[in-house]
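Example for tutorial group B:
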């Protein structure tokens, strides 16, 4: 295999064979192909894309670069959910225990946040003692015994993706549909799941800024799933404003616990219930969607979902008492309010700028090596479409003395107040699959 020749052919729009693509992935995983050559190949894919045959072979090679879990001996239907990332998106923390309470098994391998989007692992690690670095054997036991495991990507599962993801992040090749789709699907299909539901975010706070590209990404991942014999569904959902009221790791865990009590914000609860309903439907466990959603709301209200969350916290080394007293996780030293500059209607709320505002406080990372401050972030009192008076608090800023001025400057750009009407966008834009 002559790697420069493969790079040139892809650069020029030629189709590569399955054997050539498998050899590229194996060589890169083994360290025989250096980063600079794989970076050049990724940029060629960015501009020339891949057809369905190439993408299927590429994803399969990434999937098989490490261990593919076989959970067939674990009773029950195994279904996972993946979000393409957004601001205030703490859905996984609520969805996973709710899905288990509804009768599913959820083997969930999640990631960390980078830039303006948050990561499920960072939120979980806000809980004192919670260990996301579980070996594969323990992960299997958790899924079997509790119905749920919440871990990070291990060295054994899709190691090619782990290397390529880090490379894409520093070579401006993140926003590439074939590379996004293969990255997500190689990790998820390696979990040994029976079905997968995707939450494809679209809007200012998402990777996909318009519905057409979000639809294309969703359809691409559904196609990969079909080619590999796995049921895949997708919801395209709004990310033009933060989801829920809290942005920041500990603050989002607090909001998740409230939602697991049936006391969460309406938008966060709605999207979680819709996604779990889709997971149950993919598992062939839905006869009547309205009845199923009613049942899911009841599992939040009666504490069943919170009980599962408490179980998994304790099983993975965390302090389950956070479910009763979230202040155990710690709070920021300072809380100040951000007031409306004038009276009117909140017409628009740029989710990306809101995420970057929280990043200025230390709630996220500029690079993968950065430490985060779990206690800092934002809590909204008003959102898009609501009326405010001059100087009325729109949100609280929880900070520890870092980045307050820059945070406020970001918020001033993010929030537009006028005479109305507000941007009118549905929470769930489209269903695919």
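The residue assignment follows.
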């Amino acid at each position: 295999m002559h790697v420069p020749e493969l790079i040139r052919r892809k650069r020029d729009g030629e189709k590569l064979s399955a054997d050539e693509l498998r050899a590229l992935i194996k060589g890169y995983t083994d360290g025989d192909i250096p980063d600079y050559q794989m970076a050049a190949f990724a940029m060629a894919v960015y501009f020339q894309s891949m057809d369905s045959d190439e993408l299927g072979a590429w994803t399969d090679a990434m999937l098989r670069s490490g261990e593919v879990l076989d959970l067939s001996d674990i009773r029950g239907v195994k279904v996972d959910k993946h979000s393409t990332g957004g601001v205030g998106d703490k859905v996984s923390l609520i969805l996973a225990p709710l899905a288990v309470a509804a009768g599913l098994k959820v083997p969930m391998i999640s990631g960390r946040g980078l830039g303006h989007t948050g990561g499920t692992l960072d939120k979980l690690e806000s809980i004192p003692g919670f260990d996301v670095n579980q070996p594969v054997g323990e992960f299997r036991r958790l899924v079997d015994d509790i119905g749920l495991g919440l871990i990070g990507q291990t060295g054994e599962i899709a190691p090619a993706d782990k290397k390529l993801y880090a490379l894409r992040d520093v070579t401006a090749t993140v926003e590439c549909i074939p590379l996004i789709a293969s990255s997500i699907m190689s990790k998820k299909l390696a979990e040994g799941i029976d079905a997968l539901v995707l939450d494809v975010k679209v809007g200012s706070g998402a990777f996909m800024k318009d519905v057409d590209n979000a639809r294309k990404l969703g359809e691409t991942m559904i196609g990969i799933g079909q080619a590999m014999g796995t049921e895949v569904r997708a919801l395209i959902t709004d990310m033009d404003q933060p989801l829920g009221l809290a942005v920041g790791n500990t603050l989002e865990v607090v909001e998740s616990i409230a939602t697991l009590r049936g006391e969460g914000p309406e938008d966060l609860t709605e999207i979680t219930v819709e996604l779990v309903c889709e997971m149950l439907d993919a598992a062939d466990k839905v006869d009547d969607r309205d009845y199923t959603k009613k049942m899911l709301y009841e599992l939040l209200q009666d504490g069943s979902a919170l009980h599962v969350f408490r179980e998994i916290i304790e099983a993975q080394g965390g302090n389950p008492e956070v479910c009763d007293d979230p202040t155990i996780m710690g709070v920021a030293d300072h809380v100040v309010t951000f007031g409306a500059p004038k009276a009117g209607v909140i017409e628009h709320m740029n989710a990306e700028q809101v995420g970057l505002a929280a990043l200025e406080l230390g709630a996220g990372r500029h690079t993968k090596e950065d430490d985060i401050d779990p206690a800092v972030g934002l809590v909204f009192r008003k959102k898009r479409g609501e009326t405010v008076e001059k100087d009325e608090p729109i949100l609280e800023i929880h900070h520890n003395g870092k980045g307050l001025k820059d945070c406020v400057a970001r918020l001033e750009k993010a929030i537009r107040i006028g005479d109305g009407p507000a941007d009118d966008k549905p929470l769930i834009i489209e269903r695919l699959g």
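The longest strand covers residues 195-202. Compare this with the pattern of hydrophobic and polar residues in the output above.
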